[in-house]
Amino acid sequence: MPQASPTRPSYVIDEMISAKSIAARVEELAREITRHFEGTDKLVVVGLLRGSFVFIADLVRELDLPVEVDFLEASSYGDRMESAREVRILKDLTGEISGRDVLVVEDIVDTGFTLSHVIRMLRARGPSRLEICALLDKPSRREVDIKAGWTGFVIPDEFVVGYGIDYAQRNRNLPHIGKVRFPE
Ligand code: IMP
Ligand code: MG
Questions:
Q1: 124 in helix, strand or coil?
Q2: CB 99 within 8 A of CB 42
Q3: Which end of the chain has less neighbouring CB within 10 Å, N or C?
Q4: 118 vs 107: CA distance, rounded Å
Q5: 26 CB less than 6 Å from ligand 1?
Q6: pTM to 2 decimals?
Q7: 157 Cα–ligand 1 center, Å
């Protein structure tokens, strides 16, 4: 699906994970998460904007638990290719998480800097439990030791888009996950 524009070189997106596979995996994750938090009445699912918005929407609808939803937006400074070491909070949570069960939902764990910063910040607020669910994991890119309790798919070091994940703010609305390729 080429998307040419005057400011972006044209590229194609090759399907990597189908919408059907994603849906099946989300259902499995939700089942495990439901079992893990069984009996809770104080769960807050925290979506990291913007990449997790589709995933979190599907995931919470499969959870068989009472749940609140909140959002946090973190942004990395500097050159992404160099891996961002400074993380800025652009939008903080609206609610309190002290004494709550918290499930942080992230789209991709890449170097791990974003998530480790966010987790350190949230842990300082005294949640009773703090867990992570990431849709995608690129372990070959990891620089900070952080691991999600639940991971949807482990993928190779490719730039991916779709299902909420963007390239220069585009392609978040693709129903599947694809990898970006620049033809010769
Ligand atoms: P980290 O701090 O390097 O782990 O960065 C993780 C964030 O970088 C993710 O939440 C995404 O927003 C972004 N990111 C990493 N890999 C990709 C990709 O392949 N496509 C789009 N965004 C990505
Ligand atoms: Mg992100």
A1: coil
A2: yes
A3: C
A4: 14
A5: no
A6: 0.93
A7: 11
3-class DSSP assignment, residue 15: strand
Q: Please, what is the Cα angle at 106 between 104 and 111, to 5 degrees?
A: 115
Q: Whose CA is closest to atom 12 on ligand 1?
A: 51
What pLDDT, on the 0 to 100 scale, is given for residue 81?
45
Question: For a pLDDT cut of 90, what percent of the chain falls above it?
Answer: 88
Residue among 117, 40, 118 at smallest CA distance from 85:
117
Q: Which of 117, 121, 115 is nearest to 135 (CA)?
A: 115
User: Please, which residues have CB less than 5 A from ligand 2, an ion?
Assistant: 51
Separation of alpha carbons 177 and 97, rounded Å: 32
> What is the rounded CA–CA span in Å between residue 134 and residue 74?
15
**Is 137 designated active site?**
no
- Closest atom of ligand 1 to 87 CA is 2
Query: Which residue among the candidates 101, 107, 110, 137 is catalytic per the annotation?
Result: 110
Is the preceding peptide bond at 31 cis, omega within 30 degrees of 0?
Answer: no
At 83, the pLDDT band (50, 70, 90 cuts) reads low
- Token pair 């990395």: residue: 76
pLDDT of residue 6: 60
More confident residue, 83 or 132: 132
User: What are the residue ranges spanned by the domains of the chain?
Assistant: 20-157
Assigned fold of 20-157: Rossmann fold (3.40.50)
